Amino acid sequence: MTDITLTILPEKPDDDAAIEKLSERTFGPGRYVRSAYRLREDMPHRRELSFTARIGTLLVGSVRLTPIRIGKTKALLLGPLTVEPPFRSHGIGKALIEASLEAAKKAGEKLILLVGDEPYYGRLGFKKVPRGKVQLPGPVDPERVLVAELVPGAFDGVEGMTRPDYSAQK
Predict the structure, then answer these.
(1) Which of 2, 126, 144, 161 ranks highest by number of CB atoms within 10 Å?
(2) CATH no., domain 6-168
(3) For residue 93, which of 126, 122, 53 has the smallest C-alpha distance?
């Protein structure tokens, strides 16, 4: 592929329909039964911490952060992270995550949780959550539950059920 010019922008309300179509193409109808989806389904994401990737005017990727609590501790759930299949392996997902993590850190957030593959997300500062420390609604492979500390030590002592953080709604 030739060199592409990628633009990472904060998500806007006008992006919602394109992001939904992208998620549908990327994850299909099975996305509704996943544990992470259950945490997001009735909880608005933090648009100011969520980003889109564009090549020209074409939306090719998206990442969102949603407020959650792990036990009593505030955190954010990363996802969905979506990138159009023809544009994968060009650093778009990495660029989206980095933008989101940077914005979250600047906003004073301390923890980001996700369900994903450690070989991919580990390069971006995520590590496996010790088995049994964090529970999610529905079935989830505990080897895929990952956390990133935006503040060193922020995950110390954190444990419990993960649920939407309705107190974060504005």
Answers:
(1) 126
(2) 3.40.630.30
(3) 53
